[in-house]
User: What shape does this take?
Amino acid sequence: ANSSNVNRASGIGSGAALDTANALATRGSLFLLVVFAFGLGFGTTVAEPALIAIADEAAEIAATGGVIEDAEAARSSYATGLRMVVALAVGFALLVGVVRILKGWPVQYLIIGGYVGVVVMTGFAPEEIIGIAYDSGGVTTSTVTVPLVAALGIGLANSIRGRDPLIDGFGLIAFASLTPMIFVMGYGMLF
Assistant: This one.
């Protein structure tokens, strides 16, 4: 199937993420491709309205509960820090996801390993951060991120000989949901 047929079938329009992934894969620039993937994941997540809302709400609750100082600067810093950690996690997820597509690694092993990591980290993470970490994974799969991430995976898999967009092109959204849980719990354990 060519990329336009795959995109029509999946409901994803041809866009900049798809075109850029195709161009970078065709040129064979692994470095630029993973930089683009990281930047796409980071940028879309920082702009994600659902994440902005949940980070602001988490900051309000943390201030009310005495976890952080009840001052505007502390709430703003907390919300921004949470957004940056989640954005780094999604950028990392897309970087790993792109390498997975390029190498042809089965998605299920990485996802299962990631969720085992989430379960283990849940036992060690501060109680106050667990719910926020889980919700951070969910809010990354919203209106801004999903279409671009899906287009990246499908476009990349479609442009590499031997890859099937239906098998190899999907799974990036699962990574984008999984890694914020790990990163936010890790952030809570370290800080």
Remarks:
- Confidence is low (pLDDT under 50) at residues 1-14.
- The chain is about 80% helix and 0% strand.
- Residues 72-103 form the longest helix (32 residues).
- The CA atoms of residues 137 and 177 lie 4 Å apart.
